[in-house]
Design a protein that fits this description.
homodimer, mainly alpha, 2 domains, about 5% strand, disordered C terminus, DNA-binding, HTH_MarR-typ (chains A, B), DNA-binding transcription factor activity (chains A, B), transcription regulation (chains A, B), transcription (chains A, B)
Amino acid sequence: MELAEAKLKFIETWGKLGSEWGINRTMAQVHALLLISTEALTTEEVMEMLKISRGNANMNLRDLIVWGLVEKQHKAGERKEFFFADKDAWSIARQVAKERKKRELEPVLKSLAELSNVNGDEKDPEFKTFKKSVSDISKLAKNVDKTLETMLKAEENWFFGSIFKMFK
Amino acid sequence: MELAEAKLKFIETWGKLGSEWGINRTMAQVHALLLISTEALTTEEVMEMLKISRGNANMNLRDLIVWGLVEKQHKAGERKEFFFADKDAWSIARQVAKERKKRELEPVLKSLAELSNVNGDEKDPEFKTFKKSVSDISKLAKNVDKTLETMLKAEENWFFGSIFKMFK
DNA sequence: ATAAACTTTCAATAAGTTTTGAAAGTTTAA
DNA sequence: TTAAACTTTCAAAACTTATTGAAAGTTTAT
């Protein structure tokens, strides 16, 4: 496969993965484009390469900055803004984990905590089933949260190592 | 909070989490409803409790069965089908991981493998950046895959344990 | 102060996804 | 075999989310 074709396919693959995981397809594609660009790109270049409108390009670039995956760059003597993606896979994984933990996991933990304060008759099987489900899911969610917390703190990428062997 | 209110809130929370992670909101709500039901429910009961149509209830119940999260049950002397959810949090997590690994991670690994066979000039910086991005992401994805593989094989729930402490 | 270069916003529209409900299909009991 | 009980299908409609593009806003150079 030639480079130009491979680039298109990479952008497509990354976009598809994003949309399957609840991330805007175009945002993932813009990210992919920047990931494989040696140079920082302008809004204009992103628009042209992905065939998207100015508004769309601008909005997704801003979102990528909020997610901590892309940075603005200024070039000497240039009026335009340039956008550049962090290329380190481990750092990308951490940023995404951090953002989704904050946006999604934490609110769920909060709800589950409230739900475990439910009042009811301990002898009622409906009540017992409810409490058990909520408590089991809470435990799992808390452990996911703690693991992510540890992952976020780790400077080193244990995932590139062989920690998974420990699970036998 | 009273049981009835808590149940509604649980269904809502689970549905929201599902939709944020690319899972049909209603499917997640049907799952939540069955998770907190002591008894297996009929299509009719699901329709009524979630205020959804027959077609919608039927389709989401079937999908939950495909995902391995819900089973059909037959009751002696009853003509209707009853649906019952596996209540074990660890088993739910494993089923979801298994299904998404198969549907999403594996196709991405396949694409990445193809992309690493790209032809080009080793001296071209564009080519080098591309190869490095693809190769780094491949490594990460393979490790995620291996870790999931191990998780799926594990009968025991290492997540309920304290494995996360190992990451320091 | 002006105007050109550039970025951001947002209402309208398009695209994508989910839901409905009635009709078709299937199973069971008599 | 019939018909009632139940399940499945699927085209149309409703709903949700993403995209466009022109107008408004901002910055910079002169």
